[in-house]
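Q: I have 165 residues here and want to know how they pack in 3D. Can you give me a structure?
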Amino acid sequence: MNSSLNEILRACEDRYPGAEERAQLLAIARELPARVRAAQDVEAHEAATTAAVVGALRGRYPRYEKLFPQGWDRCASDLQLVLRSNVRAMLANDPRPLDDKALYYLRSILAAYNLTPQFVRDCFTLLRDQCRERLSPEAFALLEPFLARNVEVLGNIPEPAVAAV
């Protein structure tokens, strides 16, 4: 749930919301239709977006498929998982579920596969760039902070002793 919404509700737990709190609640409610429209835009472009990212990565990292025979399919699934988690976080306007339910989990898996931070940064930077190209400006503006969070958290895996790609 929206962290601001939670804070407001927590602040007025034993009382009715005051005038300022009611105004904040209404502002949150007014944003929701735009967020839902943005989620629909992302859903409509998900397959093409993830395919474009994987296609671009194939050109940059030709060894990846040799090292991980199912790697590109797994990469597409990871992109889909993260993009859908971004949408849920965007709908709630709260990055915490994104971190807790997707990014830190995936980060440990990517590190276990000995992927380089550069590969991961490239992957999620391409995801952001493809979303910028394919989504409406309004949808991208709402989603962009979460896409940036992907690059920040996932691209910060440790450099492996022996890099896979």
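Q: Anything worth noting?
A: The helical segments are 3-11, 19-60, 64-67, 71-92, 96-112, 117-134, 137-154. The domain at 33-154 is CATH 1.10.490.20 (Globin-like).
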